[in-house]
User: Fold this.
Amino acid sequence: MYVIEYLTLERQHASDIMLLSLIMTSAEEQVLEANQDFYTALQDLKLEEMEALWLHDDWVRCVRPEWDMLEGWDAVREGWQKLFESIRYIRITMTVRSLQAEETVAWVCCTEKIHSASAGKFDSSHQDTTNIFKKENGNWYMVHHHSSLRYSSQTQGEHRELVQ
Amino acid sequence: MYVIEYLTLERQHASDIMLLSLIMTSAEEQVLEANQDFYTALQDLKLEEMEALWLHDDWVRCVRPEWDMLEGWDAVREGWQKLFESIRYIRITMTVRSLQAEETVAWVCCTEKIHSASAGKFDSSHQDTTNIFKKENGNWYMVHHHSSLRYSSQTQGEHRELVQ
Assistant:
C-alpha cells in the first residue's frame, strides 16, 4: 500500500514521490503522477488542466456522489466546468491505497478527505475513489473516475458534515 | 453503450449475449461473461462461486456503500461471507453502461437496481458500479469492485428506500 498525503498547500508530494520511486516501476511512477495531476487540477479549479489529463472519448465515465453518472467526454467536461463555477475552494488530502499498472491500463484506489466552500457553505466529506488511466501515445490519461462517500464503521454517522 | 437487463430468475442473459456478440470482440464477450458471473454469484449467495471469480491477491480492493473499504483477498472474502450469512435474498437488475477491454485489463461500468431481504427487513437501492478484471492464464478475474448509492437528479430523495 502506498500512502501519500497529498497537500497542495504545502507542495510536499515531490519528496514523497522520491521516496516511493525506490520501490516503484517507471509505469507506476507515471501513473502516480497522472493521478496527482488530477487532484492538482481539481484543487486549482482549472478546467484546462482537467481537459488535458482526460481522454476525450465517448466511453469515458465519471461517477461522483452528487452527480448523475456522466457518460462521454462532453458530459464529463461539462460536469467539471459546472463544479469549478460553483465552488470557490477545495482542498483534498488524498491517500493512495493501491496502484496497479499494466501495459496500457492502470488503476488507483484512493481515499480522500475533502474540504470545500461555495457561496456561504462549507462542506467536508471522506470519499473512496477508483481512478482508471489508459496509456496512449506514451501518456497516461484518466478514462474513469468513480468517487463515493466513504462508509466507516468507526465513524458511522459522522463521515459527512455540513456547516452553514 | 451495452444495455443488458440481467435477470437471474428468468435466465434471459444468454440470448442477450448472443445479440451482443455480433458487435463485440472476443475479449469483450469474455469480460461480459465474467461480469455476469459476479452477479450470478452474488444473487446465488454462493461463496465458492465468488471465490472462483476473484483474483486471490493482496492488492485487490472492494468498496461497497455499507462496508469499510476491503483490502486484500482475505478481507474481501470475509466481506462476502458475512454478507451471504446475513441476507436471505438479493435480486439485481444490472445494466452495463460501458465495457472496455485491453489486453490484460478490462473494466465495466454498470448501474444496479437491488432488492434484498435479511431478517425481517427489505432493502432497495440503485447503485453505480465499477468492476475491474485482470486476465491471468487465459481467464478474466475480478480484481476491483466499487459500488456506491446512485445519485439521480430525477429521483433525488427517492433513490433509497427502506421498508421494515
